[in-house]
Amino acid sequence: MFNIFRGKRILVTGNTGFKGSWLTAWLLKLGANVVGFSDCIPTNPSLFVDADLKKHITHIFGDVRDLDALDRIIQESRPDFIFHLAAQAIVSTSYQEPARTMSTNFMGTVNLLDCLRRVAHPCSAVIVTSDKCYENVEWIWGYKETDQIGGKDIYSGSKGAAEIAFHSFYESFFKDRKTVRIATGRAGNVIGGGDWATDRIVVDCIKSWMRSESVRIRSPEATRPWQHVLEPISGYLTLAACLSLNMELSGESFNFGPTAEKSRTVLDVIDNLYERVKLLCDVSSPYEIVDRVPFHEAGLLRLNCEKSQFKLKWTSTLDYDECINFVGDWYSAYIKDSTSSYSKMMQQISNYENLGKERGAIWTRSL
Ligand SMILES: NC(=O)c1ccc[n+]([C@@H]2O[C@H](COP(=O)([O-])OP(=O)(O)OC[C@H]3O[C@@H](n4cnc5c(N)ncnc54)[C@H](O)[C@@H]3O)[C@@H](O)[C@H]2O)c1
Predict the structure, then answer these.
(1) What is the percent of the chain with per-residue pLDDT over 70, rounded to a whole number?
(2) Per-residue pLDDT for 286 more than 90?
(3) Could you count the other beta carbons within 10 Å of the beta carbon of residue 276?
(4) Quick one: pLDDT at residue 292?
(5) CA nearest to 137, candidates 150, 126, 127, 146
(6) Atom 3, ligand 1: which residue's CA is nearest?
(7) How high is the pLDDT of residue 221?
(8) pLDDT of amino acid 140
(9) Residue 88 has pLDDT above 90, yes or no
(10) pLDDT-based confidence at 296, cuts 50/70/90?
């Protein structure tokens, strides 16, 4: 299915971030021509820099809150596909910078949708929001795409607001348009090699262990539906491909999450990850439990992914151990040689594609 991207012009906003870098690498592997649009290199170290992705794409620095700049890049690059990932994506930062979070995540999405109104050529756009767009009523069941949108904290609210803007623009401008098609993808927290963002558990572990320190954790028994970054990315790519082939999917939102089997505690993940990298890090104890909870973060939030399974035939590919192996292998390779990032990414994408093929993933079939 992903052969549809070969030779296509693809705009990725947020391409310098964690998910944007992996998506770019996969698109490059598929033979696409990628144009990236981001405001900065958000972390140091950075996967985008270490993998030297700039060399392989057309990269433009710009702000999604700048309507004219976004309009210019879309009119000039005439993308066949757009993946909108640009966001202030860190929950803790959203408490320090609520206005920037809201304006980037909400107005950035509004600007993209406004630009799309002026697009005359065929274009399919996937807007990445989050599982946090749902009103979290702290129940054990998975949220469905028809559940209430909400958000008690700023980050969640900004993603809920982006979903509402998407719906309003679809109903007002895109409902009867065949050429421009839009959909949103909602996924939960992901883990994977090359993430260096703050307040993410795997990153905190790796950074602490590289300094030969224990990682400080606050909620050791918290359960999260862990998934590898390539899982939702395979979902976004599947959605974009299906959207370009089927107009009926325009205006729809899709959840991309792991199976319940992948729900393990924070402590499980730390122990399992440490097992994979311990030979490279000299730490007396991998973690230290602290009781300070600095800000409210939504509790357990599961996604019901039956709609993606039914309408896109998409399911996640890796089991929990494979997911942790991918992450451990990537950081082990990084610790040994940080210049191997591009080849390590490509190798992991190939491994993931092979596992997908073995398991009959829809996206491994030819169109
Ligand atoms: N990482 C996760 O676990 C996760 C989970 C659910 C949803 N998401 C969503 O996926 C997307 C990508 O997340 P990520 O983890 O790669 O984030 P990230 O912080 O690593 O990257 C964010 C990207 O957005 C860009 N950006 C931020 N503000 C911008 C602005 N005003 N103008 C232009 N570019 C701007 C940054 O430069 C960077 O390229 C985001 O929309 C995020 O909300 C991420």
Answers:
(1) 97
(2) yes
(3) 17
(4) 61
(5) 150
(6) 189
(7) 87
(8) 86
(9) yes
(10) low
Ligand 1 center from residue 132 Cα (angstroms): 14
CA of 87 to the centre of ligand 1 (A): 4
Distance CA 132, CA 136 (A): 8
314 alpha carbon to ligand 1 midpoint, in Å? Answer: 23
Domain-wise residue ranges, the chain: 2-364
Cα 158 to Cα 104: distance, rounded to the nearest angstrom: 8
* Ligand 1 pocket check for 24: Cβ under 6 Å: no
Q: What's the CA-to-centroid distance between 38 and ligand 1, angstroms?
A: 9
Q: Which CATH class is domain 2-364?
A: alpha beta
Q: What angle do helix axes 266-277 and 320-336 make, rounded to 10 degrees?
A: 40
Q: Rounded mean pLDDT of the chain?
A: 95
Which residue among 12, 50, 85 has the greatest number of ligand 1 atoms within 8 angstroms of its CB, and so is best to mutate?
Answer: 85
pLDDT tens string 318-327: 999 999 999 9
From 7-11, 247-251, 279-283, the region with the lowest mean pLDDT: 279-283
In whole angstroms, give the CA distance from residue 201 to residue 266.
8
In which region does residue 170 sit, left (phi positive, over 0), alpha (psi from -120 to 50) or beta (all else)? alpha
